Inverse folding.
């Protein structure tokens, strides 16, 4: 009888324990199921796009961990004059990967159509090992960090061009390219936002701890890359094509001009956006450090502008995911006009509010314009050279960002002058690109699946 009573008593205890266990697991399992449902919606799960969305989220989380670890070593820890020198060195370092990206990495990846999953996994593993290497030097902030940071940038950009090139292979039926690019980018932004406070918390333990976190995340990404569907590496349906010039002659070495007016003029417009982004990043960093917003510290002033730009970027990406099929050329023209208007208003009515508004509009416009440019490249460039096209476009856009940043570093710290220069950068891009984009939009695109 005693044994029976013991069994009866243990039954409710065991059931209660299982109930508590399920309750504790529910937030995690529920969140995981919700994420999987969102990433696999509208046919993305069946096509494989959902896997790419998840991989890009891992990529964004790992990158922000490294950014958090390095942020305090470049800017706030030194006087303004010395900070200018360090930031200029940082700009030079960011350019170095792109001397390899366009002429070397892009064509190499074009020749490895069957190794795209391995290429993305290799980029993840490289950053994991470099993060572990940097963890020993980040506390000192010495120059030995820069070679490792250079390697991280090279691997990050190599992953980016492969990721952009494979999106068309994973497109669900009747799914616009702009929307697909937006979903992938939005996943990266959301993961970045979620991982940033975790990285900041790890930084409180020690400056090397965010790098340990990046190591774990990128190792997970290495394995996740190989879960992509096999068609990412398949050559089925690919056409061996060469670009054709105006006179009908085949071009053995395609240039940006040979890919059509949509891509060429879209690159010019996006170069203006990137130049504006680089300019605002560095000009406002030094301006607000010396002349904070009214009633705010330098750190809070920079945070306000940074959050505004980040919010605008997220909104632009979300709008891209929401938009139905539209000509990407018209989207680029619309957001370029919006950015120019905001820059002119910021120059005329310079103040804290207008600076925040310009940051938001610049982030919004850059995000939506880049998504549309990616769609043009994915639509118009033959798959044989598509990775090279993305590598070249990334090189041009990063050069524009560096040029804008260099102008921002060298310019006197005068707000009205700075916003006038910002308006001039955008106006230059509009002058060279709007007419061509409108002409391409009027002729229409022969590919109905492209947004």
């Amino acid at each position: 009888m005693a044994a029976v009573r013991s069994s009866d008593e243990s039954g409710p205890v065991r059931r209660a324990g299982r109930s508590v266990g399920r309750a504790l697991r529910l937030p995690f399992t529920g969140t995981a199921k919700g994420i999987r449902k969102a990433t696999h919606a509208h046919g993305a799960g069946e096509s494989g796009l959902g896997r790419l969305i998840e991989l890009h989220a891992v990529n964004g989380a790992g990158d922000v961990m490294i950014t958090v670890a390095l942020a305090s070593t470049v800017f706030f820890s030194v006087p303004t004059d010395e900070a200018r020198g360090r930031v200029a060195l940082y700009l030079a370092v960011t350019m170095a990967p792109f001397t390899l990206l366009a002429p070397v990495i892009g064509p190499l990846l074009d020749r490895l159509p069957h190794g795209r999953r391995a290429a993305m996994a290799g980029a993840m593993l490289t950053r994991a090992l470099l993060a572990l290497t940097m963890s020993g030097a980040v506390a000192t902030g010495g120059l030995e960090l820069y070679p490792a940071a250079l390697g991280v940038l090279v691997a990050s950009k190599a992953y980016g061009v492969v990721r952009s090139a494979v999106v068309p292979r994973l497109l669900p039926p009747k799914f616009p390219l702009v929307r697909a690019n937006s979903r992938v980018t939005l996943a990266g932004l959301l993961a970045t936002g979620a991982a940033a406070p975790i990285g900041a918390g790890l930084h409180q333990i020690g400056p090397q701890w965010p790098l340990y976190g990046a190591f774990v995340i990128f190792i997970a990404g290495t394995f996740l890359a190989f879960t992509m569907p096999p068609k990412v590496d398949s050559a089925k349906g690919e056409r061996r094509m060469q670009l054709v010039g105006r006179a009908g002659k085949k071009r053995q070495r395609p240039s940006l001009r040979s890919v059509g007016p949509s891509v060429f003029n879209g690159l010019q417009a996006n170069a203006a956006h990137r130049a504006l982004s680089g300019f605002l990043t560095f000009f406002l960093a030094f301006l607000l450090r010396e002349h904070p917003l009214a009633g705010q510290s330098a750190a809070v002033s920079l945070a306000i502008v940074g959050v505004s730009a980040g919010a605008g970027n997220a909104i632009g990406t979300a709008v891209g995911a929401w938009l139905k099929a539209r000509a990407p050329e018209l989207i680029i023209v619309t957001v370029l006009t919006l950015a120019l208007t905001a820059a002119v208003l910021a120059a005329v009515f310079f103040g804290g509010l207008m600076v925040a508004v310009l940051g938001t509009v610049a982030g919004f416009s850059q995000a939506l314009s880049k998504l549309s440019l990616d769609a043009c490249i994915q639509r118009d460039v033959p798959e044989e050279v598509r990775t090279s096209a993305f590598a070249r476009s990334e090189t041009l856009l990063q050069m524009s960002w560096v040029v804008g940043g260099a102008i921002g570093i060298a310019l006197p710290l005068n707000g009205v002058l700075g916003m006038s220069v910002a308006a001039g950068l955008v106006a230059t891009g509009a002058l060279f690109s709007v007419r061509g984009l409108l002409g391409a939009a009027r002729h229409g695109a022969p590919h109905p699946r492209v947004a």
Summary: Residues 2-39 form the longest helix (38 residues). The mean pLDDT is 75. The CA atoms of residues 139 and 207 lie 6 Å apart. The chain is about 75% helix and 0% strand.
